[in-house]
Prior knowledge:
The chain is of the alpha/beta class. The protein has two domains: 59 residues; 119 residues, Roll (CBS-domain). Helix content is 51%, strand content 16%. The protein has nine helices and six strands. Strands 1-2-3 form a three-stranded mixed beta sheet. Helix 1 packs across helix 3 and helix 2 runs antiparallel to helix 3. It is globular, with a radius of gyration of 19 Å. The protein starts with a helix and ends with a helix.
Amino acid sequence: MAKKDEQILAQLKEYINKCISSGHEEDEIVEALLSSGWEKDIVVSAVKLVWKENYKKDHEKKPRLAHHAEDIADTQESFVTIETKIPDIIRIINDRGYAIVSDNGKPEGIITGTNILNCIDDKGKVDLEDTAADIMTSPLCYCRHDETILDVVEKMKLNGIEQLPVLKNNKYFGIITFTEIINFMSYG
């Protein structure tokens, strides 16, 4: 294999690893790469290889907690639309600690207190006309409802986050926070 081909393959593998660690399924990754112009045979082979080598094999060796993300997720809804303005978002975050930016139940992003703090300018002011689309964290890192708690913890650590939305059938199911995980580990 030529050095240039090896570099391209390494970049492709790195991209696939990031997608997998963000909770994307194999078919979602394949579709994204195909829409970017990659050849189907290369994409399918690379995704399967990376998925098998780096994740399935590693996870099979680790002890698993019997419970899944859906077992401990907080299912109370805390939605805003991309048009929701800062004052309304702040009210929701004061109540729930986060807001999910959603389009018909499909999460597009998340807003936390950190996003609000990042809106404060050098003069200590916030543009109250900014919307969720302006400040949300996107693309959204999430987990599937059937992932184990161990997988959820690993994903949160890998991505440096404390709240992880849970999807079921590509729709918002709930959210897991570090508090839920700590409570689960402490009290089961």
